[in-house]
Amino acid sequence: MEALAVLGPAALYMISMTITPGPNNVMLTASGANYGFLRTLPHIFGILGGCFLLFAGIALGLGLLFERFPLVQTALRLIGSAYLLYLAWRIASAPPPDLRRRGEGRPLTFWQASAFQFANPKAWVMGLALMAGFLPEDGDTWLNALLLAAFAELVALPCIAVWAGFGTAIGRWLDSPRAWRVFNALMGALTAACVLFILG
Q1: What is the per-residue DSSP string for 15-37?
Q2: How far apart are CA 23 and CA 25, in angstroms?
């Protein structure tokens, strides 16, 4: 019964955390606009897969790294910031779709998006709060952690998919190379701005 009782509050928490702007959602918007919704699906599922592993790992002891080794958190912030700046540059410098030469430019793969979650401080904060606040104390810890992480990602799916869909809709309105360059530059700047929150 305790496990069922936390599902509602956990769902509300995940909705509030995943529907709001952040590095993942800004990148999904840019990807949806540049590559379309279907080509962005590996990126979406990579985020979900990476967060599932991260959240379950936090519940099973990975979160203790922050407590015992503060340098890990500092290193994570620096790595995450550097990678975000690289992704921001990729987004900002992407040519308009109709100018892109064959083989150039591609959305993040499942594995790239999944790996990024381990360097994404927002994902760590989300996972730490989720497991600290909603992991049932009764029953098997491993099973509860896996079920809660899976439930969290099920709730997150439509929330982050909305951003890719939003980007896809914007992409249909951009009808000139100049408009595409302005859009990509704006998305790159927003992605880079997330570094301020990471290092702040």
Answers
A1: HHHHSS--HHHHHHHHHHHHH-H
A2: 6
* Residue 42 exposure: Cα atoms within 13 Å on the Cβ side: 10
Structure-token pair, residue 92: 């900002």
Rg value, the chain, Cα: 18
């900002």: which residue's tokens?
A: 92
* Closest by Cα among 123, 121, 130 to 151: 130
Is residue 29 classed as helix, strand or coil in its secondary structure? helix
Q: Where in the chain are the domains?
A: 38-95+104-199
Q: Please report how many Cα atoms fall inside a 13 Å half-sphere around the Cα of residue 100, on the Cβ side.
A: 16
Condensed to tens digits (0 to 9), the pLDDT of residues 82-139 reads 888 888 898 888 877 665 543 356 889 999 999 999 888 789 889 988 988 888 878 8
Rounded Cα gap, residues 121 and 194, in angstroms: 10
The whole-chain average pLDDT of the chain stands at 85
DSSP 109: P
What's the gap between Cα 89 and its chain centre? 17
pLDDT tens across 165-176, in order? 999 999 888 878
Would you say how long the chain is, in residues?
200
Give CA–CA dist 71/69, Å, rounded. 5
